[in-house]
Design brief:
The complex is a heterodimer of chains A (109) and B (278).
Chain A (H helix, E strand, L loop, with lengths): L2 H16 L4 E9 L6 H11 L9 E7 L1 E5 L5 E4 L13 E5 L3 E8 L1
Parallel strand pairs in A: 1-2
Antiparallel strand pairs in A: 1-6, 3-4, 3-5
Helix pairs in contact in A: 1-2
Chain B lengths: L3 E4 L5 E3 L21 E7 L4 E10 L2 H16 L3 E7 L5 H12 L5 E7 L4 H7 L4 E6 L8 H11 L6 E5 L16 E7 L6 H4 L1 H5 L3 E5 L11 H11 L4 E4 L8 H12 L1 E3 L5 E4 L3
Parallel strand pairs in B: 5-8, 5-9, 6-7, 6-8, 9-10, 10-11
Antiparallel strand pairs in B: 1-2, 1-7, 3-4, 12-13
Helix pairs in contact in B: 1-4
């Protein structure tokens, strides 16, 4: 359940940047290959944000699908698993997206 | 349950500050002159809201602390290894054996991570090495801040080796850089050959994979070739060594690996690249 630790980081960063202002919305980007479950973050967020300037804030999570480009055939293709090869058979790929764990923005009052 | 740290030599236990946000009780000054950037303003009937662009990696704080640990260790030419595995893979037995066999060559220090109990730390202290136990409480992994506190308590000597035994878990510790020079994943043959595919994040972050308990192979249907193929699929550059911490088989290669890495300077994110010049 590392989502608890991750959520503590989120609440800590956002409350620091809010400088005491009330936060009403937080938007995250979570890659589908990041090993973080958005539902678990949502669950933890309500608990962790209690008593902070984020209490009651709405959490928006943009899930980002995995994509990679192939060094052999040059194609960009969807990546379902971290260790997938290119459909052409080549394992020599560069991952382009899917591992994001970012705080995009927040709305304060 | 809050995380705590116990120095096994002194018996002193202190609470570790969890990375929990402090409730912001100070006055609401709308000073956004830091890294945050005000994107838009919206006026409605009742209140003014502002969207502030943060564009910040969630783990940035941990990564910064990890870099600080890495620099601190590199300045002192200390090799720090982050040992990760499932519970019961034989990490503590491997550490006991390794420290017993090598501590004449160079000093060892141990940062021991477990959710609860001092059992492993007491076992390792029996080898004569300095050990701190970090009990993570509800936490399922060590983070860079905990390791920084562990290093402060241990104060390892220059040119020593620090073994960080992470909490037994193949998922959570994968995301948290501790500032180690290399990450060592231990997989025991009783766990099945498909672990690398089931836990790709962990194996992808490994520099070395130790396949342990090979003395049990005659009694199991573990397919070693398949396991090696799976490791290669997930991390083609990972080095793999087959060992038995119980019988000592294959440990010479592990010891050689440690000796080699003691002589190398860590690159960013821990991969060793160049030989110390002194």
């Amino acid at each position: 359940m590392h989502e608890l630790g991750i959520t503590r980081h989120i609440v800590s960063i956002v409350s620091e940047q809010a400088h005491g202002a009330k936060v009403t919305d937080v938007t995250l980007e979570i890659g589908k290959l990041s090993a973080i479950m958005p539902d678990a973050v949502r669950f933890c967020f309500d608990v962790v944000s209690q008593g902070t300037s984020l209490e009651g804030a709405t959490l928006h999570i943009h899930e980002i699908t995995g994509q990679a480009s192939c060094h052999t055939c040059g194609m960009t293709f969807p990546l379902e698993e971290l260790y997938d090869s290119c459909p052409c058979g080549s394992p020599h790929i560069t991952r382009l997206s899917g591992e994001e764990l970012n705080i995009k923005d927040m709305v304060i009052v | 349950m809050r995380p705590t740290m116990t120095n096994i030599a002194t018996g002193q236990t202190i609470p570790l500050a969890a990375q929990e946000p402090s409730a912001h009780s100070h006055a609401t000054s709308h000073d956004h002159g830091h890294s945050a950037h005000i994107h838009s303003q919206h006026q409605d009937q009742h209140r003014e809201t502002k969207t502030i662009v943060l564009e910040q990696a969630i783990l940035s704080k941990n990564d910064r602390l990890a870099e600080r640990n890495r620099d601190w260790l590199a300045e002192r030419h200390i090799l720090a290894l982050n040992l990760v595995s499932s519970p019961g893979s034989g990490k503590t037995t491997l550490l006991e054996k390794t420290m017993t066999d090598l501590q004449q060559e160079f000093p060892f220090y141990v940062i021991e991570g477990d959710q609860a109990t001092l059992h492993d730390a007491e076992r390792l202290h029996g080898t004569g090495c300095a050990v701190v136990q970090i009990n993570t409480g509800a936490g399922c992994h060590l983070d860079a801040d905990m390791v920084a506190r562990g290093l402060e308590s241990l104060l390892p000597s220059a040119h020593s080796v620090v073994m960080i035994e992470n909490v037994g878990n193949l998922v959570c510790p994968a995301l948290f850089d501790l500032g180690e020079q290399a990450r060592v994943v231990i997989l025991s043959v009783t766990e099945g050959e498909d672990k690398p595919l089931k836990y790709p994040h962990m194996f992808q972050s490994a520099h070395l994979v130790l396949i342990n308990k090979i003395d049990l192979l005659p009694y199991l249907s573990f397919d070693m070739d398949q396991c090696l193929r799976y490791v290669g699929m997930v991390k083609a550059s990972a080095q793999v060594l087959q060992i038995s911490a119980q019988t000592g088989e294959g440990l010479a290669a592990w010891y050689h690996w440690i000796q080699q890495h003691r002589l190398t300077r860590p690159d960013r994110k821990g991969l060793s690249c160049s030989v110390f010049l002194d």
